[in-house]
Amino acid sequence: MDKRICRRIVVAMVSALPLFTPGPLAAAEPLELSLRRALEIALAANRNLTISRLSYEGEERGLDAARAEFELKVVPTTTFGTLSNNALAPNATGNNSSIGAQLTKKLEAGTTVSIGPSWNRSGDTRNETMNLSVQQPLLKGFGSEVNLDGVRRAQFTIASAGRALDQARVNTALETIATYYEVIKQEQLARLSDTLAERLRRHAIVARSKERVGVATPMDTYRAQIYLKDAEDSANQARNAYESAKNQLKLILNLSLEADIKLAPPPLPELHVQNLEQEAVRQRAELVQLRAEIEEATRALQVAANALLPDVSVRWNYGQAVAAQPVFAQFLPTTQRQSSVYLQASSDLYHTAEKANYRRAELRIESLRVSLDTKSTDIRRQVKQQLALLDEAKRRIVLRMEQIRQAEGKLALAEVKFAHDMADNFAVIEAEGERQRARANLFATEAEHAIGIYNLEAISGHLLDAFPERLPRSSGN
Q1: Structural domain that includes position 272
Q2: Do residues 122 and 89 make contact, with C-beta atoms less than 8 angstroms apart?
Q3: Which among 298, 462, 275, 291 is positioned nearest to 375, based on CA atoms?
Q4: How does pLDDT run across 429-466, given as a tens digit for each residue?
Q5: Distances in Å between the alpha carbon of 210 and those of 49, 207, 416?
Q6: What whole-number distance in Å separates Cα of residue 101 and Cα of residue 333?
Q7: Mean pLDDT for the chain?
Q8: Is the residue at 36 inside a domain?
Q9: Which ranges of 132-217 would DSSP assign to H, the alpha helix?
Q10: Using CA atoms, how far apart are residues 111 and 146, in angstroms rounded to an integer?
Q11: Distance (Å, whole) CA 158 – CA 185
């Protein structure tokens, strides 16, 4: 084939490639988030909260284990040995063996009831026995308060885990709010830095043009270039800080780091709680937990007092045996019966361990009460301190706004003088920088004020109620 024809074919194929090459994929739409939506995602998907939630569910299994003590139990029994005398079969001696099963039930008052059959062999004698026994403690171990100790401790542990889960939710919400405002602030700072760099770029062009016609000096050009490079460096740092803040928010929300997010400006927060000190003392998680611990320690003191009592119990046994016949010889026609009631009593004369446990329980109650008073005072201090910080932030916002107004006035005057060759560009560049710093300070102070309001809501125990619709709480509360 002629080389020219081959070349034409290749050119035609290459020219046709754009017709068959797919266009660029459309960029994925960014995930738009409001502050409330970010909080909902964080409270549902945050990994630290997932760990706390699993811990809470694990404690619930502990309650099931404690309640199992009072369930109806089926206990198989078997014995092998040598028997010299048998009350139900006095003449039987020799090898003895039995197999049976017991239905056992423990009641909350401490009563234990057991009933069940057994199949026995003693020497050449065989019989079937139905046994029934009831045991009731009279002093030590008597009453539901003592016997339900394991259940009550498990319930307290679950309630504590639920409060810890709610506190973790509050901490996650605070972290989300602070990071959300940090992203908004860094985005605004990045825009300010880009705007300042663009304005300084124009100043550098103007300075270079004026220098060419002899209106400006080389110093004006150098000054503009130096400040421009500083502004471009600040803009790069601001963009990096913005991306870093967004990545931190994605980690909190458990989103992919490759995901693109777009944040809506957060609403202006308002305090929704009156009588902040009283509400903080009533609702704060740490104080609620301390009050629950005092109540639990008081209950444990009663259990420790019961352990100091003598171990006295009454036991009643009843047994009925029949000769080896099918299924207990049609409703147990009696061949042998045995019934006994006896009182058991035992006690340690010194009760060293029990007395030590009782004293420890007393000291724990005293310690918890002191901790409750100390924590209550500290929380009231936190409320007062946070209110003072909010008042200071309000004053600083007013000050920053005044600084912006003055910087804009100074910039306008400097631009007029520079335009009429009454001053060099130093005053203009300086005024630009002052306005940019004043605006950045205003953004930071406004974010600090908003976060301070949410912190105050958290201190008072009402952070998750501080939104138009109440955010969902955990099942542990």
Answers
A1: 176-298+357-465
A2: yes
A3: 291
A4: 888 888 888 888 999 999 999 999 999 988 888 887 76
A5: 62, 5, 16
A6: 21
A7: 81
A8: no
A9: 144-147, 149-213
A10: 12
A11: 40
